[in-house]
Amino acid sequence: MVQRKLTAALLGLALAGPVMAEDLVYLTSTEGEDRLLATSINRDYFPLASYLEYEQILTFCGPATVAAVANSLDISRPSPDRLYPWALFTQDTLFNEANQKLKPYAMVEHEGLTLAELDTFIENLGMTAEHHFADETSVEALREAIKTTLLDQGARFIANYSRKALPQEGDGHISPVAAYDEDTDSVLILDVAKYKYPPVWVTVETLHAGMMMTDSGSNRSRGFVVVSAP
Q1: Quick one: which of 8, 132, 162, 190 has the fewest CB in 10 Å?
Q2: Reduced to 3 states, what is the DSSP secondary structure of residue 167?
C-alpha cells in the first residue's frame, strides 16, 4: 500500500509539469501582474500577447516567435489557404522559398535556428533584423537595447537565451520580450512554450547570463535580434 501511494505521488509530480524556481516572478502571479501594470515600458505586451501562439513543434520556438512578432507589426500578411480570405503569419507560412533554402522545415524541426539564422529568416520575410551576440554586448548595452526597442512601437525585441541561467528546465530557447520594469531591472519574456511556462520576469543580468551560454549549433554565444517593419 505504501509503495502504491508513493508511486501515485511520483506520477502526480510528473504530470504536474516543470518545477518553477521560487526566485522567478511569473506573470500569472499577483506580483507579476502588478509589475506589468506599474511599469511604463509595457506597450509591446499588448500587440505581442494578442498574437502569441505556442510553438507547434518543440524546436519551433524561433518560428513561433517570428510569427507573433510579424503579426504584431504593421506589415502585409500572407493569406493561408485554410484561413482564406483572412491574412495571418503562421509558423508554416514563414517557410517561403528563401527560408526553405536557408534552412528547410525538416532541419528546423530537427535542430531549431541559430541566432544568425534567425536574423536571416526574419529578413527573408521582408522585415528588418539586426542580431547581436551576447559575448560582444555588455549588460549595460543589453539593457539600453531593450529599453530603446521597447519604446519604439515599430520595433520588437527577440531574445535567444539558455533556460539554464534562469533557472528553468531545458536549454536553448527563443521568445519575444514584451516589457521592462526599471524598479526591478527586469524584462518580461513571453514564452512561446506556453504548455511549459507562463510569461516570466527575469533581471537583465540574468537574461544576459542566459545569452552568454554557448549555442552548440553555432559554437557562439546566444544573443538577441531587434526586428522592425521595413
Answers
A1: 8
A2: coil
